[in-house]
Write a structure and sequence with these properties.
With about 130 residues, the protein is mostly helical. It is built from five helices and no strands. The termini are far apart.
């Protein structure tokens, strides 16, 4: 019986260590989201909306309206990124995994399309980073 407890303790230790990387990953993702939100806000306050709007509309009221729209969108995206970071920090990884599995089993085609879209976007980002 003493050996069984040792085995149980080792098994529980490995289960706990298996969850540790997932916990670290979610914190890393949350930190990246917050840094991205901060960078977006910094870029927007440094005239990022102006530079982008100038590339789209160069004259008149259209340029100013575009700048304001881009500024509002940047602010909204940064706020969403921070809320997402907070949600990720508070989320239970096992519960999320279970919910995702249920959704994929219930709706395999939309899940496949979403996965393909994410893959396409990641490939585009990676390709752009190499250029």
């Amino acid at each position: 019986m003493g050996n069984q407890n040792v085995g149980d303790d080792a098994q529980q230790g490995s289960a706990a260590s298996g969850k540790q990387p997932a916990g670290e990953l979610k914190l890393s993702i949350a930190d990246q989201l917050e840094r991205g939100a901060d960078a977006l806000r910094t870029r927007m306050s440094a005239g990022g909306a102006d530079a982008f709007a100038d590339g789209i509309v160069t004259t008149g009221d259209g340029a100013e309206a575009t700048r304001k729209t881009i500024d509002r969108a940047g602010t909204a995206v940064a706020a969403r990124m921070e809320r997402t970071a907070d949600w990720i920090r508070d989320a239970d990884v096992d519960q999320i995994r279970t919910k995702v599995e249920r959704k994929v089993k219930a709706n395999p085609l939309p899940a496949l399309l979403v996965a393909a879209g994410i893959g396409f976007l990641l490939a585009a980002v990676i390709r752009k980073g190499r250029d």
